[in-house]
Amino acid sequence: MRIDILCKPEGDQRGEQILAKVRQALNEMEVRAEVHLFCDRRKLIDNRVYVAPALLIDDVVRVAGRVPDIREIKSFIVERPRYVERMKEVA
Fold it and tell me: Which of 26, 29, 43, 62 is 20 to 30 A from residue 79's alpha carbon, by CA?
């Protein structure tokens, strides 16, 4: 699983807040994932995100423009394997 956090390069603290909450959620759920923090406008535009910060899980934008709470992040992580299984059935 790959989790990307996109934020503006101006030094907004919301990107760091999301990073801390994602790490806490992963530790509580005992899930391993790659977590990356990008402070780059080009990365925001490439992912068609126009409001920062943004949380992407496996290249899918889950939240943009706000800092999600830990329960919401956990629900995104739990939901991910179900989505992969559903897509295998369709293909």
Answer: 43
Question: H or E element: which one contains 38?
Answer: strand 34-39
* Total length of the chain: 91
User: Domain 2-90 falls in which CATH fold?
Assistant: Glutaredoxin (3.40.30)
Q: Nearest CA to 18 among 80, 82, 61, 48?
A: 61
Enter the pTM of the model. 0.81
| Residue with token string 């509580």 | 28
The tally of CA atoms less than 13 A away on the side-chain side of residue 88 is: 6
Q: How far apart are CA 5 and CA 10, in angstroms?
A: 15
